TrEMBL record:
It comes from the Bacteria. SUPFAM superfamilies: Macro domain-like. Pfam families: Macro. It comes from Streptomyces gilvifuscus. Residues 1-169 form the Macro domain. This is O-acetyl-ADP-ribose deacetylase. PROSITE patterns: MACRO. InterPro entries: Macro_dom, Macro_dom-like.
Length: 169
């Protein structure tokens, strides 16, 4: 049984097997969590992302998919990059957001990761409402068969932490 824990803090400072990056499809870094992971993890992450772009993902990583690279200088073994959907008021993209969590857990299982730290995917510049994002994240992790022992949601502020805590109860 996978345990789910919540941490208020910085995902780049977690001691885990894998850190999940809320990446953009280019895999070449960006803002928010993505930029923080690339800055703290160092150039090796970007080098592996460039290799992925040159080989398997020439057009970028599709939304809802996940792929792993080294974690560089992070206190983790791997970074699992996943591309969350941009929230839309007119189109239900919940399945794509759920896919980010399922695919990240699938990649974690392939790697043999026992501990995985997730951010609140798509809640930053992609504007997904926090309460709905927390619902999808918690339900998907609870409903996905995985060998991962601990899923840690690392939330940047008190409001996000409290929203996820309500969804866990």
């Amino acid at each position: 049984m996978t345990s789910i824990t919540l941490v208020r803090g910085d995902i780049t400072q977690q001691f885990v097997d894998a850190v999940v990056n809320a990446a953009n499809s280019s895999l070449l870094g960006g803002g928010g969590v993505d930029g923080a992971i690339h800055r703290r993890g160092g150039p090796e992450i970007l080098q592996e992302c460039r290799r992925l772009r040159a080989s398997h993902y020439g057009k970028g990583l599709p939304t809802g998919r996940a792929v792993a690279t080294t974690a560089g200088l992070l206190d983790a073994r791997w970074v699992i990059h996943t591309v969350g959907p941009v929230w839309s008021a007119t189109e239900d993209r919940s399945d794509l957001l759920a896919s980010c969590y399922r695919e990240s857990l699938r990649v974690a299982d392939e790697l043999g990761a026992a501990t995985v730290a997730f951010p609140a995917i798509s809640t930053g510049v992609y504007r997904w409402p926090m309460d709905d994002a927390a619902r999808i994240a918690v339900e998907t992790v609870r409903g996905t068969p995985t060998a991962v022992e601990e899923v840690r949601f690392v939330l940047f502020d008190d409001a996000a932490y409290e929203t996820f805590a309500r969804r866990l109860d």
